[in-house]
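input
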Amino acid sequence: MPAAKGRATRSRELVIDASILQASGGQAATHPLSKHCRDFLSTVLKVCHVAVLTHELSEDRKVHVSNFARRWRVSMEARKKIHRIPHAGSELLASTIENVISGPGRRQKASDDFHLIEAALVTDGIIASVDEEGQGNLLLGD
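output
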């Protein structure tokens, strides 16, 4: 729900998955996913929210980004809207997910996204992603 007129929105720390950065298209993009990702990133740039960056997220973003996302990140850096956090690793989280998610294939795919969960746990708990397969791998049980 939008904030009431005249009231400021609380700034949120958003963990943004590489899937959004990869899917975002420039102004000429016509695919709905590309446009929605671009609009989301543009909104984050314009409003008070900040993007969370860990070493793992930084490495992920070096490879999996569009040209639009590269320019977006430069703009975010210039506005000091990138919140860098140290390694947010949680052995308890890793062992819990290891024990709860069934199947070695799903466990491996889910472990690829641990860094998103770990970063969210030490910030505002918000992960933005369009990776439906990755989300499905984090569902517990069969």
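quick obs: The first helix runs from residue 18 to 23.
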